Amino acid sequence: MKTVRTYILAGVAALALTSCNDYLTTVPKDAMSPATTWKTGDDAEKFLVGCYDGWEDGGALLYWDAGSDFAYNNFPWEGFTNIGNGSLSPSSPGWSFYDYTIIGRCNTFLENVDKCVFSSDAVKKDLVAQVKAIRAYNYFRMGFLYGGVPIVKPFTSAQEARVPRNTEQEVKDLVFKDLDEAIADINTSPAARGRIAKGAALAMKMRAALYWGDYQKAKDAAQAIIDLGKYELDPDYTNLFKLAGVDSKEIILAVQYKSGTRPLGTIGQLYNNADGG
Fold this sequence. Notes:
By secondary structure, the protein is an all-alpha fold. It has a single domain (37-275), classed as Serine Threonine Protein Phosphatase 5, Tetratricopeptide repeat, CATH 1.25.40. The chain is built from nine helices and no strands.
């Protein structure tokens, strides 16, 4: 009986070890593992979502109005009060736009996308183009606000990541190179609301050229947007501030938010005091 009991216990232990091993090696459902991904076009599509997650901050876009006479940032710790009143200093620089999170994700995508098998070369080119446009936009924003910033690549160590600051011209060159390559390969119509298509990539190029003072390049990009024939002024300007206007032809690209899932309440803080702001 002792022998039989010993075998039973051994069998239970083996099953427990097998069960534990299966549990510990379960592929996570909410994250992509480098060991199991970068194989299909669907993997690339999923990673692209991560590149879009935070590519721009809707709150920051609204708070830029607090840097003018349009609005006032009543909460100094949020970083736009001192931008609005001109009290910026090294110890109180305001809202920080110095962030490589999205650029890092874009670099990872571009480094690994060739490992994936796509249904067609056109699909791959469109995804790569979207990522290049997102990376260019983030470099443009930092380059315009801070001048020359480091141009980074995927690193394998902290020591390797200690890169020098690039010149502003080098940042400009990268921005327009990425955007020109994106515009050449990207789809004319977006795959979904909030996705970058040709008009949005051209708009990024137009804005970068305008802000950096290359007015001919800005004019040419603007004309290219017009020639697409996909956008027009909304006959009711207030429609742009309503849910009903979410697909207005005046909108070239918008940061996406969703009530209850990804809310944005910043605009409610910019009313004047008499209206409860």
